[in-house]
Amino acid sequence: MIYVLKLIYSFLMPPGCFVPLLLLIGWWLYARVRRSAGIVLFASACLVYLLSIPLVGEKALQSIENRYSPPAVLQGDVYVMLTGGAVSGTPDVSGTGHLSGSTLHRVVSVAELYAAKPLPIIVSGGQVYADTANEGRLARSKLIALGVPAEAIRLDDKSRTTQENAQYSKQLLDKGGWKRPILVTSAFHMPRSVKHFAAQHVQVVPYPVDYKISRGTGWTGRLWIPTSAAMDDLSLTLKEYLGLLQK
Length: 247
Fold this sequence. Notes:
By secondary structure, the chain is an alpha/beta fold. The chain folds into two domains: 2-65 and 226-245, no CATH class; 78-209, 3-Layer(aba) Sandwich (Rossmann fold). It contains nine helices and seven strands; from the N terminus they run ααααβββαβαβαβαβα. The protein has helices at 2-12, 18-33, 35-51, 54-65, 101-116, 135-145, 162-176, 190-199, 228-245; strands at residues 78-82, 86-92, 95-99, 121-124, 153-156, 181-186, 205-209. The strands form two sheets. It has a five-stranded parallel beta sheet, sandwiched between helices. Strands 2-3 form a two-stranded antiparallel sheet. β2 and β3 (95-99) form a beta hairpin. α4 runs parallel beside α9 (228-245), α5 packs across α6 and α7 crosses α8. The termini are far apart. The mean pLDDT is 94. Residues 78-243 form the DUF218 domain.
């Protein structure tokens, strides 16, 4: 019964609700007004459906998440962790402001890596918009709260883009004399990040974290049910592929 309710719910809320709506309008146009207009609406309904199901969104995102895998043996002399979003002014245990889910996952992952192999950590990320928090400073505070010594952290709190992450991190790498950085960021963000670091003549050891898509689960009915999350996955995929085209 729970799955029937989820199916009904998916077609009552956006984006799923647009599919039957377009079909109904298309049927009316086809039968009462103009067949060609009805066919256009039928095609639009099919397109909305395809763009809003996990089968498309998740498979698209997985195509970029699978570009890199965590190395079996960790070899490097410094961690470089990139941030990816934060909100400001919200109450938190240690003050105000919150990291996005992806950034927090990166923070936890690099803290775990540090516990397994203590190396200096470069945290790279600034304040992107006037109404968002400084990502690097929040990430540094969280790392310290998770037990990473403050003296082990180097901070770039100016970067606003992945390109700037690479530029400012390169300056800190040169200053510290580090030659083999272990790059920690979300799996979907890793290909674009590697590209920008390569443009700065920095050869990184990719360590992708924060995977969004499950592995080894096969084909299930869930993949055919429209969700807004599936459209988010598709949008994120397009953003990353467009970023790879950036010079």
